[in-house]
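=== RUN LOG ===
request id: a7f3
mode: sequence -> structure
chains: 1
length: 451
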Amino acid sequence: MPLDEQLLVHSMPHSPEAEQAVLGSMLIDADCIKDVMDKLRAEDFYLQQNRDIFEAIYSMFIFSKPVDGVTVAGEMEKAGTASENTRSYLLQLMEVTPTSANVMEYVRMVRDKSLMREVASAASEITAEVQKGVGSAQGMLELAEQKIYDIRRGRGGQGMTPIGVVLQEVMSELSELMANGGKTLPGVPTGFSALDDKTNGMGKGNLLILAARPGMGKTSMALNIALNAAKSTGKTVAVFSLEMSKVELVKRLIAGEGLVELKRLATGNLRESDWMKIAEAASTLSRTDIRIEDNSMLTVADMNAKCLRLDNLGLVVIDYLQLMNGADNQAHKGDSRQNVVSEMSRMLKIMAKNLGVPVLCLSQLSRANEKRTDNKRPMLSDLRESGAIEQDADVVMFLYRDDYYNKESEEQNIAECIIAKNRHGETDTVKLRWMPDFTSFETLEERYEQP
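=== RESULT ===
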């Protein structure tokens, strides 16, 4: 086989004709540019000349400049990416593309070839890591999963992002929020309106810590938030329970959703009216996509790997931080528990950012607040075993019920959700109604009658 033919056989997958057709369509029909920009990026073009032309059109589109063969050539000359044959090549692109009617089919072809190149590149990188002989098989598997996941999410092989690209994302987001009258939450709703008003929902890629002393109801609140998020977004909610079993969690969900006393669910002492409530609650729960894992030996890496396999993930809930294992299911030899927890909190923040969804992690508090005589409300210094939790978290919330410590308190069954840290908003205290029979919370303004 001649050398030229061998080089063609070993070249990475690409379609010069499809790339030219996409560029030609944008040059002869500016209306299709917005549709193309939504599906392609410069890296999807294999040939450098085509990539340069796309980047010029992209830049002009962001700043609402007119796009045609002449203006694009001028833009490339100013950017220093033009060559002697740029103008003739642009003319050729317009001549070989008689219509833009099939532009999205050309886009699909370019994108498919780009994905194939990314998969091939990832496979080569994985093979190279395996051949080094360093690390465990589990580590290699997690590396492979992460690389494939990045490709599926459109992040494979990306370099540094030009500010123009980010500007377009920001402008699109602002336009969408403004179109809804400023009433749309940027983040995933917790279902508690007063809390959402302070936090703007749970932000994508954010690590949220919900901390309290035992008995305050932090697991119940986390389940309330998980169910509210699943119902309002229609997305998958992953719940990792290192303390309670799947059956216990679902019983609590039924109790809160159906307003059935948890004690009756636990003992089986159910009334006929309870069965109707249970049936309605079960029907509601079955329409959500909540995934529960109750393996108490899970590490952050295990959770990350499981979440990577969920296509429509919207929220991750972990109950709770201090029960989690360090790397390889054990603490590093010589490391204090504080160092292990610090490492895990940092890994959780990285996981949230990589997954692009909020991660709500529960945490225990030290006994320091109970030793105070004047005010037992938790503060950031009470976070157990690690100041790194406060540093890594975007939002830190504490649950406090005065009637837990003071039986004569005027605020019976009233819980305070203390927002002690809020990287994207204000700190404040939100009051919620605690319904102990149903192990559930609700916004204080929403009254309920005891059946």
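=== NOTES ===
Residues 301 and 327 are 8 Å apart (CA to CA).
DSSP finds 19 helices and nine strands in the chain.
=== END ===
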